[in-house]
Structure formats: structure tokens, C-alpha cells
Amino acid sequence: MRINKKTQSGKGINSGFSANPAPAWQTIAICIFLAAIVFAIYGQAFRYGFVNYDDEKYVYENTVVSAGLTPQGIAWAFDSYHFSNWVPLTMISHMLDCQLFQLDPGGHHLTNVLLHIASAIILFLVLHRLTRAMWPSAFVAAIFAVHPLHVESVAWVSERKDVLSGLFFMLTLWMYSRYALKPSGRNYFLVILFFVLGLMAKPMLVTLPLILLLLDYWPLNRFAKAQTPMRLIVEKIPLFAISAACCVITIF
């Protein structure tokens, strides 16, 4: 009987997944709450203009970007470096904003806010999926949503690369949680795809493969479950190779 009780107590967070999902209305309510608190704090940014620190180089004095989304502009984004970084996806997102909003700064700020909302919601969903601990996951996501360290990233148009890479960081975690639950070539491909897109938004995501290994240890508990734990490291080799290539590109 002691063995059975211990086994039952081991389910939940430490085993990675639980068979008792929370009611859908609670999940939806928390997602709405996260969106609301971000809007409450950052909605005022819609009234702000551009600043003369990097915004002119990224957007309003950059003739390629301000021309909107064009084939020539997309080619330029992949063939150019910006402040010693290769961030083609970020530059394309600025072009898309110019296509939609021209040089109205409110629209550019709106995009940053929406990206941050999406990241906060996906973070909650990922943590809840991994741990099945709803309220701790909601708390962590709420702290992420309102933390003062994000003010610069959300309220400064030139920091689009931070909120955009953050979104793809969260999406990579989400797809990895699906891959860990149901390994398949499709799920692994999506992990790599979102990781690469995140790197093309900002190269600071190079450490993400190490974070996935930490998730393997807890809460997924894959090292304890794996017959050959080394396989978990081997499956990350393509991700480490991509990180190494991004480091080389950034250095040169």
C-alpha cells in the first residue's frame, strides 16, 4: 500500500503531465485576464510617437522599411545586418507595420503590445501544460506580463526584436511540450522551425536548447523515463548546431 501511495503522489508536476485538466472556462478566463493587464499597463503606448534613438534607423528614416512589404525589401532584410545583428524577421515585421499603418507610430506600438500579450498567454498555456499547476502557472505568466524589465521592449518600437523573438521562444516551448508528449517528425520539425524564426528575430535565443534540456529534467522527467538518457542530448544536436551557426553569423 505504501508503494501505491507513493506512486500516486508522484503523479502531476514531477511526472510532466496529469490526466486531470482544469475546466476550459478557467483557462480562458486567465488568458483574458493576462491580455487585460497588459492592455491596462501598455495601452497608453498607443499615444506615443517614435523616438530619435534607433527608431529612425529601423523605421521612419529607413527608406526600404518605410516603403512597406516588397520583394526587394524582403531580400534586403535577409542580406543586411543591423547594429551587428542579422534580424531579417524583425525587419520584415517593421515593413509589414509600415504597409499597414504607414508611419503612424500608434500602429507600430500596437504590434509590440499584441506580441507581448501573445507571449504572456502562451507562457501560461505552456507552463500549465507542463505542470498542470494552473494557479502557479497563471502567477508566473502574470509576473512576466507586467514585469518592469519589459517596459523598454514593449514601449519602444526599435525593441520589436525582443518581443518578436520572445513570442517564438514561447512557441518553441509549446511545440516542444507537444513533442515530449507525442514524439514525431512533424512536431520536431515545428520545434526547429519556431526556434529558427526566433533566432531570425533576435539571436539571443541561442541558449534555448539548454533550456529544453532543463525541461527534460523537470517537469517532463524525461531523463528518469528514458532508457538511454544520452538520447535526449543527441536529439538536441540539430538545435545546438543551429545555435552555433547563429553565433558564428553574429560574431562575423
**Termini Cα gap:** 62 Å
Largest sheet: none
Radius of gyration: 20 Å
Q: What portion of residues belong to β-strands?
A: under 5%
Mean pLDDT: 91
N-to-C SSE string, H for helix and E for strand: HHHHHHHHHHHHHHH
Report on the architecture of this protein:
The protein is built from 15 helices and no strands. It has helices spanning 2-9, 24-42, 55-60, 63-66, 71-78, 88-101, 105-131, 134-146, 151-155, 160-181, 185-201, 208-217, 222-225, 230-234, 237-251.
Topology:
Layout: H1 2-9, H2 24-42, H3 55-60, H4 63-66, H5 71-78, H6 88-101, H7 105-131, H8 134-146, H9 151-155, H10 160-181, H11 185-201, H12 208-217, H13 222-225, H14 230-234, H15 237-251
Helix pairs in contact: 2-7, 2-8, 5-6, 6-7, 6-10, 6-11, 7-8, 7-10, 10-11, 11-15
Supply the key terms.
mainly alpha; 70% helix; disordered N terminus
Provide a compact summary of the structure.
With 252 residues, this protein is mainly α.
